Amino acid sequence: MESSNNYNINILDLSDEMLLAILNKLNMVDVIYSLVDVNKRFNRLILDPFYIHNLDLTVKHSLLQRVSPLDMQKIDTICKKILPKIHHHIYKLTVPSYLIESIINIDYPQLQSLSLVNFEEQKLLKYLTGETVYRLLTNQITHLSVDIVYDKNESNIFLLILSSGKHLTDLTFHNRFSSEHLGNPTFVLSSIHISSTLNKLIVNVTTFDDCLYLLDGTLQSLTALIIDIISISESSSIIDNTKKLPKLKQFSLTSERMTFAYDEKVVPLLRRMIHIEDLTLFLNVGRLGSINMDDYINAYIDGTHLYNDVFAFMPQLHRFTFSINTCAPISNIGFPSNDDIEHSFIEKGNRHVGSYVHNRLPIQTGQCHVFSLPYQFDTYLLMRCNSFQGGLFNKVRSMKMFDSYPFEHDLFEKISQHFPFLRNLTLDNEAGQDNKQHSSTLITFPYLEHLNIMFADADYGEQFLFEKNTRLPRLLELHISYDTLTMITNNFTNDLARVNCSKIRHIVTKELYVPPKDFHLYFP
Question: CA-CA distance, 121 to 150, in Å (whole number)?
Fold first, then answer.
């Protein structure tokens, strides 16, 4: 092992504490495979119950990369030779779907926390109803995390888990929904008998009705709900949204898609949380046509609205984390400025707030973004982008940019500086750049792996893929119009984008196409 000072360190000379600190930062599969049975000291440290009790058998790799044969060899060795030695010490186990067969028939007497990663619905259903997992779920498991790929909603695994988990207190249920049932609520609980032990639920759902069903009183012990909703909209369902929720202490609501039902749906729900202590909101709100002309000056969601219309009903609230975009009508007579928005929080005693406002008088609409500081979310929605004033956003990994006005080179330079760890970027803008004579400043996005410019003007293909403008050393996936791709690469013959395209593993286009002979040379 070589240090930053360019001299060699023998890991055998390190103390146990320092060595364990290093091992804890490495992938467990690599550590166990490489060091068990190397010598007695490594065995003592690695097979110690305090190290091995949380066994994570996932292999860290890009979403676009398959598990390599070498990784499978490592895992097979661990399952056959090492797991039988340590199974009785395992308290928490993380299992990817491709490994379930190898570990399912081993006894885990201490196991209380189980994470099942990247399972297809039918495969997961098979094991949840099988003898081993069902016995664990019924008798032992208190913490369960489930990650489902492409659920067709042919069986309600969520209800199966709730009805089987007799000791379950903490459930994370992540479902990558298929498109055919995005509008259908699937979390109606009242039809089955459910154990009331669940305290904390982390879940993603398709509709706001699902959220209301989860809070209908069936989960009697629920004190924390962290929920991501695809669409918050009006519905024909008649679900009570007035009954108080005295047991709920923590609530987090995330919904990236613009909602026009904030005042009708979300505000009444929040007012029910009379004992809430910790509140998180990540919302994109549209109020166009939803308010009276007299209320234009109060159209944006600001401190005055939040404190008077929401927090007044939450006397025990002591933590509020938020990122709220509002798109609303404005009037020539009067409209709030950025200073007005910030003052609405300051006068309530909250100075830890960032904001930017962009009022477009010619079309009488405006955009306001308010967020708590420091910014705590891994996603950032940037709308009316040219009003972005910068800031420190080290936690952001994914950004979506929307506008009808051009994105210029200097804006992307600012984005690269203020979002240094960005991995996913989506642009939605049909307006081409006005200034195509870009500055001499070369922009670098050192961690960007996923770029989506499918619904962006071809100028942004040149902006990001031409090496003279932008460097993308880790780009793995590109969403782009095939016409744009052929145009900016001159049908895959010029060299302007070759470097940034050299590592791409996955291309998504709107059109079907037959790649020409030079295509695979451009994307080796």
Answer: 7
Buried b (16+ CB within 10 A) or exposed e, 262-282: bbebbbebbbbbeebbebbbb
What CA–CA distance (Å, rounded) separates 287 from 302?
A: 13
Is 108 a member of any domain? no
C-alpha to C-alpha distances, 20 to 23, 64, 121, 437, nearest whole angstrom: 5, 31, 38, 53
**Whole-number Å distance between alpha carbons of 249 and 35:** 44
Identify the domain boundary among 89, 105, 123: 89
In a domain, 1, yes or no: no
How far is Cα 136 from Cα 277, in angstroms, rounded to an integer? 33
Residue 332: other Cβ atoms inside 10 A: 8
Tell the residue number behind the tokens 């759902």, with chain if given.
205
Whether 52 shows a pLDDT value over 50: the answer reads yes
How high is the pLDDT of residue 447? Answer: 97
Q: To which residue do tokens 């924390």 refer?
A: 224
Question: Is the pLDDT at 520 greater than 70, yes or no?
Answer: yes
> Which one-letter amino acid corresponds to residue 445?
F
Domain span at residue 66?
Answer: 10-89
**How far is it, in rounded angstroms, from Cα 127 to Cα 134?**
8
Question: How far is it, in rounded angstroms, from Cα 10 to Cα 252?
Answer: 47
User: CB 17: neighbour CB atoms within 10 A?
Assistant: 7
Helices assigned H by DSSP within 106-219: 121-128, 131-139, 157-164, 208-214
Is the pLDDT reported for residue 6 higher than 80? no
Please indicate, yes or no, if residue 475 is contained in any of the structural domains: yes
Confidence of residue 64 (pLDDT cuts 50, 70, 90): very low
User: What is the C-alpha separation between 263 and 299, in angstroms, rounded?
Assistant: 11
Whether 204 is in a domain gets the answer: no
Give how many domains the chain has, as a whole number: 2
The CA-based diameter of the chain, rounded to the nearest angstrom, is 79
